[in-house]
Design goal:
alpha+beta, 3-hydroxy-3-methylglutaryl-coenzyme A Reductase, Chain A, domain 2, 4 domains, 4-stranded antiparallel β-sheet, 14 helices, 10 strands, binds (R)-mevalonate
Length: about 400
């Protein structure tokens, strides 16, 4: 039997026989995970943190974040609290659909004009075939085409309703490609697959009174840092990493495909040929204005979302009735909160003060399981403002001698 055909227990045994120590796992959990993925032998767990006070379009949300970096959750909360003092975030996701691509080889008898006349009929056929998507409020919306020599590039816009829509879009594209192969002048299909090109664009905006972030000078410094992020790729990529800290953690917690969003985001950041910051921070009439647009091809159903209890827990935290439009708006707002908190930290005290305090908890937990010792060690590290592991080991030695 091939490895993938084995039961997960048998796969685990093979690894253990090689001398690899595996974590204990509950049989029922292992069985469930095996249904979700491939070659499963265990699980990787991430802490689930909460953004407590995120206000988006007049509504307050608790937002789950799955991430191992404590400062990411702390930053999101810090940013969200500042937003709450400033009337919250105004966000909008238009959910216009996601793109699919069909590329075909054509010969000299092919006429693009003639094929274009067939597009309405093809859309109708696709919507008849995939009528359940239409019943859920989505469907195939538009087909456009560009010919480059003997290659025909078709772009198909699909509204996936409340899902991310990757699987459904791929099925629609393969259905359309099979129909197209019978048209005059079309030699063969090269491929038919969804495109992760930025779509479902979602924008979050905030207007910050400088008084709520320590004054006008700090607000101006943030605007200047924002401009540096637009002008300088070295800063832009770090700024965008801070943005994706928030986005990815919320995407992961809600069972969404963060790889797709990351890939699309890179395109959005380099639209004019230079990689730039995804967010804009400017001063206007004495206020600091922040704005962020991200591609949010996400869903609240589909994929493994309904099958995963951990993800369902996240939806319960958000409020069960959440739509994909609202979720997109929440995720971009969290990302903007992370961005503001990072800019605020680096334009004032620097990032390490907060980071290292939070990181110290991890170091203390790694060095001792005893809660009392952990507390004492953490206190000593903070007092001495030294967060290196070697120093922590020395401190722990002293604590143990004193105890
Ligand atoms: C660290 O995870 C993220 C930051 O570097 C982002 C930034 O510099 O804007 C703090």
């Amino acid at each position: 039997m091939k490895f993938y055909q084995l039961k997960p227990e048998a796969r685990r045994k093979l690894l253990q026989d090689e001398g690899i120590a595996l974590e204990q796992i509950d049989d029922a959990v292992l069985k469930r995970l095996d249904e979700l993925s491939e070659n499963v032998i265990g699980q990787l767990r991430l802490p689930l943190g909460i953004v407590q006070n995120l206000e988006v379009n007049g509504q307050k949300y608790l937002v789950p974040m799955a991430v191992e970096e404590p400062s990411v959750v702390a930053a999101a909360n810090h940013g969200a609290n500042i937003f709450a003092k400033n009337g919250g975030v105004i966000a909008q996701s238009k959910r216009q659909g996601i793109y699919g691509q069909i590329v075909l080889q054509v010969n000299n008898s092919f006429s693009l004009q003639q094929l274009e006349q067939k597009f309405p009929e093809l859309i109708k056929l696709a919507n008849q075939k995939f009528d359940s998507l239409v019943r859920h409020g989505g469907g195939t919306k538009e087909i456009t085409a560009v010919q480059k020599e003997n290659l025909l590039y078709l772009k198909v816009l699909v509204d996936p309703a409340e899902a991310m829509g990757a699987n459904k879009t791929n099925s629609i594209l393969e259905f359309l490609a099979a129909k197209l192969e019978n048209y005059a002048g079309i030699e063969q299909k090269l491929f038919a697959i969804l495109s992760n090109y930025p779509s479902q664009l979602t924008t979050a905006k905030v207007k910050i009174d400088p008084k709520t972030i320590g004054g006008i000078q700090i607000a101006q410094r943030i605007a200047l840092l924002g401009q540096i992020g637009i002008d300088d790729p070295y800063r832009a990529v770090t700024n965008n990493k801070g943005i994706m800290n928030g986005a990815d953690a919320a995407l992961l917690a809600t069972g969404n495909d963060y790889r797709a969003i990351e890939a699309a985001t890179a395109v959005l950041a380099s639209q004019d040929g230079q990689y730039r910051s995804l967010s804009k921070w400017t001063m206007s009439d004495g206020y600091l204005l922040g704005e962020l647009t991200l591609p949010m091809a996400i869903g609240v159903v589909g994929g493994s979302i309904k099958a995963r209890r951990d993800v369902q827990q996240s939806f319960a935290i958000l409020g069960q009735k959440i739509t994909s439009k609202t979720l997109a708006e929440i995720i971009v707002s969290v990302a903007l909160a992370n961005n503001l908190a990072a800019l605020l930290a680096i334009s004032t005290v620097g990032i390490q003060a907060g980071h290292m305090k939070l990181q110290a908890r991890n170091i203390a937990a790694a060095l001792t399981n005893d809660e009392k010792e952990q507390k004492q060690l953490l206190k000593a590290m903070i007092n001495e403002k030294n967060y290196s592991e070697s120093h922590a080991k020395e401190l722990l030695k002293k604590i143990r001698e004193e105890n």
